[in-house]
Automatic annotation (TrEMBL):
Region ranges (Disordered): 165-201
PROSITE patterns for this protein: ZF_PHD_1, ZF_PHD_2
A GO cellular component annotation in the UniProt record: nucleus
This protein's domain notes: The PHD-type zinc finger mediates the binding to H3K4me3.
Name of the protein this chain belongs to: PHD finger protein ALFIN-LIKE
Assembly behavior: Interacts with H3K4me3 and to a lesser extent with H3K4me2.
Key words, A-Z: Chromatin regulator, Metal-binding, Nucleus, Transcription, Transcription regulation, Zinc, Zinc-finger
Length: 262
């Protein structure tokens, strides 16, 4: 397993968690056909790893005992052909969530008391409130959990338990999230944030998830919707800029392009 330098702070641990999660989400969604093919039931016990550089890998488990970090579920390939494909992917997603949390809290448990005390003491010195030191000692762990909890789980992304909103019809003002709006003829028009009803639409799409990284909708970012599968994506995740979107009459996401959908 790729480890590199061990994360030491809450921010570093969350970055490690987020990067590994992004990799696994990509394996189970955007790269799902490649992932499915690698999980050959005829091979030995295989594991799905997400690495801190946002790459994923299907390989044998670590040989060292005990391993450097908690290990993911062993033998995910054995059940592949004995289950419905969607159910199997959901099962891998649940085990991946468990693994991601175990790695994050394994690293979090290694934050020693002095490091946490130093962080709290610095904050108290700024606040001028030394009487709250003891009650804040657990804040780093709570903050780590809060940061993780703000992201949808891999299982939620794969099963769409937090469903991606269907794109509204053109006459109701469908839009590429953030700064542009797509009409039925593929034209992209400006859509200033100050348009009437903008705040209401922002609330409506607050649970929309990126089909690539699984991140939540953010009105400050450019999003684009696939005209085939009707999922939404961060422009940066699919390498589409607002300027490039202007020349696209019908957008196909990477998954639909690979599957050759019309």
């Amino acid at each position: 397993m790729e480890m590199g330098s061990s994360p030491r702070t809450v921010e570093e641990i969350f970055k490690d968690y987020s990067s590994r999660r992004t990799a696994i989400v990509r394996a189970l969604t955007q790269d799902v056909d490649e992932f499915y093919g690698l999980c050959d039931p005829e091979k030995e016990n295989l594991c799905l790893y997400g690495h801190p550089n946002e790459s994923w890998e299907v390989t044998l488990p670590a040989e060292e005992v005990p391993p450097e970090l908690p290990e993911p579920a062993l033998g995910i390939n054995f059940a592949r052909d004995g289950m419905n494909r969607r159910d199997w992917l959901s099962l891998v997603a649940v085990h991946s969530d468990s693994w991601l949390l175990s790695v994050a809290f394994y690293l979090g448990a290694r934050l020693n008391r002095n490091e946490r005390y130093h962080l709290v003491l610095s904050q108290d010195m700024k606040d001028g409130d030394s009487g709250t030191i003891e009650s804040r000692l657990l804040c780093p762990k709570k903050r780590l959990f809060s940061l993780i909890n703000d992201l949808p789980t891999v299982f939620e992304v794969v099963t769409e338990r937090k469903p991606v909103k269907d794109k509204p019809a053109a006459d109701s003002g469908s839009k590429s999230r953030g700064s542009t709006k797509r009409s039925s003829d593929g034209q992209v028009k400006s859509n200033p944030k100050f348009d009437e009803g903008y705040e209401e639409e922002d609330d409506e799409h607050s649970e929309t998830l990126c089909g690539s990284c699984g991140g939540n909708y953010n009105a400050d970012e450019f999003w684009i919707g696939c005209d085939i599968c009707e999922r939404w994506f961060h422009g940066k995740c699919v390498k589409i800029t607002p300027a490039k979107a202007e020349s696209i009459k019908q957008y196909k996401c990477p998954s639909c392009m690979r599957r050759g959908r019309p």
